[in-house]
TrEMBL record:
PANTHER family, sorted: ALCOHOL DEHYDROGENASE, REDUCTASE, PUTATIVE (AFU_ORTHOLOGUE AFUA_6G07090)-RELATED
Gene Ontology CC: one annotated term: mitochondrion
Domain annotation Alcohol dehydrogenase iron-type/glycerol dehydrogenase GldA: ranges: 10-152
Protein's name according to its UniProt entry: Uncharacterized protein
Cross-referenced InterPro entries: ADH_Fe/GldA, ADH_Fe_C, Alcohol_dehydrogenase_Fe, DPH1/DPH2, MAR
Pfam families: ADH_Fe_C, Fe-ADH
Molecular-function GO terms, alphabetical: 2-(3-amino-3-carboxypropyl)histidine synthase activity; alcohol dehydrogenase (NAD+) activity; maleylacetate reductase activity; metal ion binding
Ranges where the Fe-containing alcohol dehydrogenase-like C-terminal domain occurs: 165-348
Keyword Phosphoprotein among record annotations: no
Species, as recorded: Thyridium curvatum
Amino acid sequence: MENFIYQANPSRVIFGSGTIQKLPEELSRLGLSKPLLLCTPQQTSQAADLEKILGGKVAGTFSRATMHTPVEVTEEALEVLKSTGADSLVAIGGGSTTGLGKALSIRTGLYHICIPTTYAGSEVTPILGETQAGLKKTRSDPKILPGTVIYDVDLTMTLPASLSATSGVNAIAHSVEALYAQNGNPIINLLAQEGVRALAAALPAIVADPSSREARSSALYGAWLCGICLGNAGMSLHHKLCHTLGGTFDLPHAETHTVVLPHALAYNAPKVPRAMKMLADVLPGSDGDAIRGLNLLLDKLGVKRGLKDFGMKEADVDRAAELATSNAYPNPRELEQGPIRELIRRAWAGEHAK
Ligand code: NAD
């Protein structure tokens, strides 16, 4: 076995069904009594449920969390924080709400309890991406990591089947890139494989029956493990491409990850045979070929396969290729302008990865 360094990110995780009821106990364990609740405008009823569970003992609710964590929204929320004298943050929602919780916590030092309702995985990473004047900047700092994560499968039952599918593939993408990360290690490989195994079985079951609590529970468990991979291993081409495409062409986060993943994996495949084998071993029907397994999974999920389906124009392919290769970053295969352009063109057109 090769030498390696494994650095765990210390978060406390409460997992299960009905676990949201543990929130008052968790706050009192921490000596906190006046949290500001955070959510999106679409999830105010879940925030209202939290307020009831806390017997109304909250500083208030800020319900304008927005995708890609715009700094203007964070500043608005900071004003609310100050005026209410909140002593902690409780974020309930997907990656967008978690992002706001992280942005507030790093600015104020307040304890952040995160209650995720998608499979994005941000709740277990020390990473924060913020947008200002149309530019998304990402930073990593141990202080960004939420202190407590409460996974309650009951809260994910309302996640529409289509978003469950793409959000789950977003999670799988974290594990895929962890399997060939420069700073990868055997512990992360175990988590990555188990995360993909759980999601690859659960997602088609959710699409077939969105009310299946067992499938939802497995998906949430898988998403947690994949999130740990994202927080521990360096990401490469796939995440950089999605970041560029999402930020520059305003494409939806989870859907973009879903379209790009097989193409980015096919690009890197010749340089990462070990990762391809580990992935093929946990993707049903792959027959030893991870790309085949991934394509099969996406077909079963019935997800959209082309970036053009989300409004990207063919004329943007050149600009996307330029941006994706303009900054050097670690990737198992050298970034070659021509093949990267062809990768993006195939993803744009919705062709199968080769
Ligand atoms: P999201 O948080 O934007 O949620 C998408 C929509 O679904 C929102 O309207 C939300 O209110 C709704 N929703 C969420 N959960 C629901 C539920 N259970 N039932 C019904 N509706 C629900 O989407 P996301 O994909 O979770 O997060 C995307 C954002 O997270 C992006 O900004 C991305 O950059 C960021 N992200 C960051 C990290 C990190 O480590 N920093 C990791 C992954 C994603």
